[in-house]
Amino acid sequence: MNQEQFKAMPDRLLVWYDKGNRILPWRSEPTPYHVWLSEIMLQQTRVEAVKPYYDRFLHALPDIAHLAEAGEEQLLKLWEGLGYYNRVRNLNKAAKIIMEEYGGQMPGTQEELLKLPGIGRYTSGAIASIAYGQADPAVDGNVLRVLARLFCDERNISEEKTKLAVEAELREVMPKDRPGDFNQSMMELGAMVCTPNGAPKCEVCPLREMCAAHQAGTWEQYPVKSAKKPRVIEDKTVLVMQSDRRAIFRKRPAKGLLAGMYEFPCIEGKADEDKALSAVRAFGFSPLHIEPLGEAKHIFTHKEWHMIGYAVRIDELSDLEAVAKKGHFILADRSEVTESYPIPTAYAAYRKYLT
């Protein structure tokens, strides 16, 4: 690493950032709560996708006190579509701790922030620097990619020791008067110019003259990271069962994948119509009509769901409540499903048939 160039990097980045950074809702009012919420939402989610969620969440829960009092059903519904639902649960847990142990005021040092559920080194650095003006780096994939290309850094960014080393190196050159803007300029460069997918936009990069990968034409080689393990593939059949007035759901367990969310009843494997009808009858319901809904796929971090779906009209039996109770099903009023029941995005291809 060229130390002189490394030291010159912050000034160049800030000049570029000041000329044209994106106008984002959480940047216009960077309170600790706003920075915290936005950074959690932005993890593995695009900025444009986050904006409506951020606005809706703040409208419902405008501060930490309201977040601490929110129930799980409300939280999951507000988070519906963002995925990684433990993140919103951790927001709630941390908010309760802030109310109980910090008098409702979010702590302002990285050391204290790291004690809160769901806040790691990156998020704590972002909050401390942007909301409190502390000279703490916020090192995420964008930052690691930019620096790896800038200096043709061969260190494996998947390893924790690399992230900690980069954090220590950045701490030495961070401008003490604008640490938050510096961190955001690094994020901005990685998100808009030195992007992860496709060729970087070197022609508009403020650091191109000092970028070793640009000069050598080797940007595709960086960053160095460990190969991902192949995802586990699970086949399943989704049953969108509805009577005249109600839709049938099951609530997922309190722990594990999509914990606490509402899902359509499913059976393992990809069933044909006869097997699907047999499953409906085995559940205790009386099917009147079945219609195929086609195939869909949803990708999680470590697994993929390959699904086939069926819309099944069931008889509005007099003992429907008893059947549902016996099979641990949820009978949801069809007019209330959209507003009241958090349904995972994994079922988006079939949720539209709730009519």
Give your account of this protein's structure.
Helix content is 45%, strand content 14%. By secondary structure, it is an alpha+beta fold. The chain folds into two domains: 219 residues, Endonuclease III, domain 1; 120 residues, Nucleoside Triphosphate Pyrophosphohydrolase (Alpha-Beta Complex). The protein is elongated, with a radius of gyration of 24 Å. It starts with a helix and ends with a helix.
> How many whole angstroms does the radius of gyration measure?
24 Å
Main β-sheet, in a few words? 4 strands, mixed
Tell me the structural class: alpha+beta
Q: Could you name the ranges where pLDDT drops below 50 across 5 or more consecutive residues? A: none
Q: Work out the strand percent.
A: 5-15%
Order of helices and strands: HHHHHHHHHHHHHEEEEHEEHEHH
Envelope shape? elongated
Number of strands: 7
In terms of quaternary structure, what is this? single chain
CATH 2nd-level architecture of the largest domain = Orthogonal Bundle
The total domain count is 2
